[in-house]
Structures are given as structure tokens and as C-alpha cells.
Amino acid sequence: MYEYKLKELAEKLDAVLVGDENTIITSIASMANAEQSQITFLSDKKYQDQLQTCQATAVVLTEESLPYWNGAALVVSNPYLTYARLAQLLDTTPLPAKEIASSAVIANDVILGQNVAIGANAVIDSGVELGDNTIIGAGCFIGQNSKIGRNTKLWANVSVYHNIQIGDNCLIQSGAVIGSDGFGYANDRGNWIKIPQLGRVIIGNNVEIGASTTIDRGALDDTIIRDGVIIDNQCQIAHNDYIGEHTAVAGGVIMAGSLKIGKYCLIGGASVINGHMEICDKVTVTGMGMVMRPITTPGIYSSGIPLQENKVWRKTASLVLHIDEMNKRLKSLEKKLLKFST
């Protein structure tokens, strides 16, 4: 358990301290459940009334919200961002591995940086390079000639195929598969002929990849994930895809092959994106979006029908199915009206 004085937290978080600087904080909690020695945060002023019953020892909040709280506080301009940094300071998540386990299988020519840790039953194949302070969790597989940079963590049972490059300060959650074959086949009179996938996956620095997400290797060219990209759980990134810097991809997204996504995009959960096209920088696709055509202008894009009562949805679906017929009738009426007007 970590312990910090409020003065120390204020200095680390660039916050203005209100209250006793020697107050001890041991953990962080939600405003509803926080207790003594815990700190919480208020990021939305519509919840200010909850401060009256909050039992936390201290609260991270804005100067505007300070009059609603009688206890110790860290005053900042962006409480939610400060919460993120505070959570990093008070993080109690254990490391995926702390040393090189005796049961790990490591090829003779593997290059290990300083302070590398490798968990039980991990397999590190020939030609692999692991950077300083990299941690490989239990049961991971790192394929031939792959390279992983400094300070990168792989949780248990991550599979990294051959010739993959992963940068510095990356975090890959359990069950992710990096560099599996893309879905490449040719059809010979009804029989599927497999096309070997000869490209790589290149992942930049400060990338996070969620549990059970799959990133396929390129067919000939590489699949590329640029710096600062975050990808949630259970996503499918197909062969030859390109994701630009600092784009965020929520859970369950499916991307078809040879798709290029720009910088600073936000892709909502369960969206499906067609391949062989481009999405420009600073595009937001809301949840369950179906993107079938290129997007060339930054903005927010949505598709799909929100949840309705079944009887209402049935009427909506019926109308959608008859749109073409309704359009023809409307055009016919427009022609008749045009005749009358002339």
C-alpha cells in the first residue's frame, strides 16, 4: 500500500492544497464509497450535492466547486485528468512478472536488456530482442526475430508472432494476438487457396492493446499502429491496416483489411469499418457505426437505429424496407406538381 501526504500529492499533481498538508492518503475511491484516508474527485459539478455526504479525507475538485466541500482538497482546473494521474500514483496492480522464471524457455541467441522479467512458462523464440525493463507475463509466446522496446509490459498469455516490432512503453493485455495471419485466400473453382501472409505488424511507442484483441500481420506490406494509439478489448484489426497517432478504438470494433485511419480519431464500440479506404484525421464514429465509404472531412459520424420498443421498431423497419417505393411515389408526385405549376 502506498502512502502520501497531501503536500506530496499536491506537488506531484500541480494542485493547490487546501487543508492540512500532513494529512495521509492511502488510496483512491469513488465519491459514494470513499472513507477516511482515501481521496476522491469531482469532475462534474452536477454531482456537487454529493459532497455534503462524502466521507473522503480529501477531494480533487475545481475552485468553482470548492465552496461545496468543507474538508481538505486539491484544487485543479481538470479534476478528471488529475484523477488519472493520481490513480497512477496510487496504483496497486502487481507486475506481470518480477524476475526470469526458471520455467521460461528462452532461446540461446535472445538479446535481453537490463532488468527484463519473464514469467512462468513463457517461450521466447530465436532472434528475439527485449528492451530494458520489459516485462513478459506468464505463458506468453514471442516468435522468431520479434523486437520489443523498453518499459513494455505484456500480461499473461499474449501471443506475438514472428518478425513483429513493438515499441517502448507499450501495454498489451492478456490474450491479445499480434501478427496472426490475415484473412487472405484466392478462390479456385470453389476451393479456397491460402495466401501466405508475409508482412509484419509494426507497433509504435506508448500503445495500449486490450485483452483478446487481434492484430493481423500484413499480406505483403505491414500492418501499422502508430504512437499513442489505444485499442480496447476484443477488437479485430485486419491485415495491412494503418491506424494513425493517438487514435482511440473502443471495444468490439471490427476493421476490414487495407484500411487507413488518421490521427486523433475516436472509433465507438462495436463499429464495423469497411476496408480498402481511408478515414481522415479527427473523425469520431459513434458506437455501432457502420462505415462503408471513405470519410474525408473531420467531424462526428453516426449510423444505426437506437433501441426502441419492439412494436415501434417493427414499424420503423417496415418503413425502412419501403423507402425505395416511397421515393418513387414522391418523385412521381413531384413531376405531377411540376406540370400543374407550369
Please summarize what this structure is.
By secondary structure, the chain is α/β, with parallel strands linked by helices. The chain is 15% helix and 28% strand.
Describe the SSE topology.
Blueprint: E1 4-5, H1 6-13, E2 16-18, E3 24-25, E4 27-28, E5 38-41, E6 58-61, E7 72-75, H2 79-89, E8 105-106, E9 111-112, E10 117-118, E11 123-124, E12 129-130, E13 135-136, E14 141-142, E15 147-148, E16 153-154, E17 159-160, E18 165-166, E19 171-172, E20 177-180, E21 185-188, E22 191-194, E23 201-203, E24 208-209, E25 214-216, E26 223-225, E27 230-231, E28 236-237, E29 242-243, E30 248-249, E31 254-255, E32 259-261, E33 266-267, E34 272-273, E35 277-279, E36 283-285, E37 290-291, E38 299-301, H3 310-321, H4 323-341
Parallel strand pairs: 4-5, 5-6, 6-7, 8-11, 9-12, 10-13, 11-14, 12-15, 13-16, 14-17, 15-18, 16-19, 17-20, 18-23, 19-24, 20-25, 23-26, 24-27, 25-28, 26-29, 27-30, 28-31, 29-32, 30-33, 31-34, 32-35, 33-36, 34-37, 36-38
Antiparallel strand pairs: 1-3, 2-7, 21-22
